[in-house]
Amino acid sequence: MLPAAARLTKNQEFRLVVRRGRRAGRSRLVVHALRPDPAIASSAAAVGEASSEVEQNTAPTRESTGSTRVGFVVSKAVGVAVVRHRVARRLRHLMRDRLPNLPEGTLVVVRALPAAAHAASDELGADLDGALRKLRIHHPDGPPVISK
Questions:
Q1: Taking Cα atoms as reference points, which of 134, 29, 35 lies closest to residue 90?
Q2: Cβ distance 103 to 70 under 8 Å?
Q3: Per the record, what are the reactions this protein catalyses (predicted)?
Q4: Does residue 31 register a pLDDT over 60?
Q5: Phi/psi at 86 (5° precision)
């Protein structure tokens, strides 16, 4: 289970990551990631004001502790409710193990595709790792990813 501080929960947060972030697709899932822009944050802090443009484009919708947060999208195209929940649980478990390898403040949305319904956890993990490598958002010196 992901801790509450590591979850994306609001529609506005999902929309921000999907529209402004980078995307990497695999056969079973698509990963969208939005890294914090330190130049914008530091310039807004230096001026002493956060313009509405900066808040609207890059700021999370709730006060951030700087922690990495993850959200999941598993549509009805994946399958019936039981299948969708199983896929979401697997993805949550896989992302929990990968959170320490991601940069602080990164927002991630993992969207499951219909092929995820029939995939084993190790296949989903391989797709997730491939997408994260393509996005270049994992710490190379972070702890190794535990796969079961």
A1: 29
A2: no
A3: Endonucleolytic cleavage of RNA, removing 5'-extranucleotides from tRNA precursor
A4: yes
A5: -65, -45
Please, what are the domains in the chain?
4-135 (3.30.230.10)
The pTM for the full model equals: 0.75
CB atoms within 10 A of CB 32: 24
Element (H, E) at 25: strand 22-25
- 3-state class (DSSP) for residue 2: coil
CB-CB contact of 16 with 61 (8 Å): yes
Q: Average pLDDT, stretch 113-137?
A: 92
Query: What amino acid is encoded at 74 in this protein?
Result: V
What is the pLDDT, as a whole number, of residue 142?
A: 53
**Rounded mean pLDDT of 9-33?**
92
* DSSP conformational letter for 146: P
110 phi and psi angles, rounded to 5 deg: -110, 120
Neighbours of 144 (CB within 10 A): 8
Q: Quick one: pLDDT at residue 30?
A: 94
Residue 140 contacts residue 100 (beta carbons within 8 Å) = no
